[in-house]
Amino acid sequence: MTNSIQALVSGEKEKEYGKATVSMSACAGFWDMALKRMGFIRATPLTSREACLLMILFKCSRDLGKNKQDNITDIQGYAHIIDLITKEEVK
Fold it and tell me: Which of 91, 85, 89 is nearest to 22 (CA)?
């Protein structure tokens, strides 16, 4: 992961939105609740890692519609957040 992506996730974006791992955990909870309300029942709640993977797919879909470097940067950012989540789970 490049230093610029690490700085973006842990610097600028963290100041703006808070810690990325906490944000993705909240996102997973909201999505899990919404999916259940729509009738999609899962055996286990959606995880933060899965929420990141879904965001990567969303960014891929967006980039297929219009190639933009911002989409690729976001994909790298979500991949970095997965790495942070994994490191937190190991602790």
Answer: 85
